[in-house]
From TrEMBL:
SUPFAM superfamilies: YjbR-like. This is MmcQ/YjbR family DNA-binding protein. Pfam families: YjbR. GO terms for molecular function: DNA binding. It comes from the Bacteria. Keywords: DNA-binding. It comes from Tsukamurella soli.
Length: 140
């Protein structure tokens, strides 16, 4: 049985995120587990997620969020910011989520976070194109 779709194509956060994520070299979008994922061979970003139950803190869905894998050196600092959360399922692999509804979104920051994630998963040819200038407008 396929997963139910858990997003709306006309969601303004998703529309803007697509523009950023799909500007990376060879990036493509594919729905997985009912949510949009952004890939370049492997997944480097996802839209929407949730948190796991932690002690007395109940699990919650964070529908309008972007999930990404930060550089290990940035993780602790990002976790101090209330906009960020450890997502269910992929959080144990070092991924974080950015809740896009907590404050006005800085799309350059989103592009930078996705850039860090993209660099961990993309093949060398895509990284060469990225370093050659093929990147989201927010990073130019």
């Amino acid at each position: 049985m396929p997963h139910p779709i858990m997003y709306r194509d006309d969601d303004p956060f998703l529309v803007r995120l697509r523009t950023v994520a799909l500007a990376f070299p060879d990036a493509e979008e594919k729905a997985a587990h009912g949510r949009p994922t952004f890939r370049c061979g492997k997944v480097f970003g996802m839209y929407g997620g949730g948190t796991k139950r932690a002690g007395d803190v109940p699990a919650r869905r964070v529908e309008q969020s972007v999930l990404f894998k930060p550089d290990d050196s940035d993780t602790a600092a990002l976790q101090q910011d209330p906009r960020f959360f450890v997502p269910a399922y992929v959080g144990s692999y070092g991924w974080l989520g950015l809740d896009l509804t907590v404050a006005e979104v800085d799309w350059r920051e989103v592009a930078e976070l996705l850039d860090e994630s993209f660099r961990q998963f993309a093949p060398k040819r895509a990284l060469a194109r990225l370093d050659g200038g093929e990147r989201p407008a927010e990073l130019r």
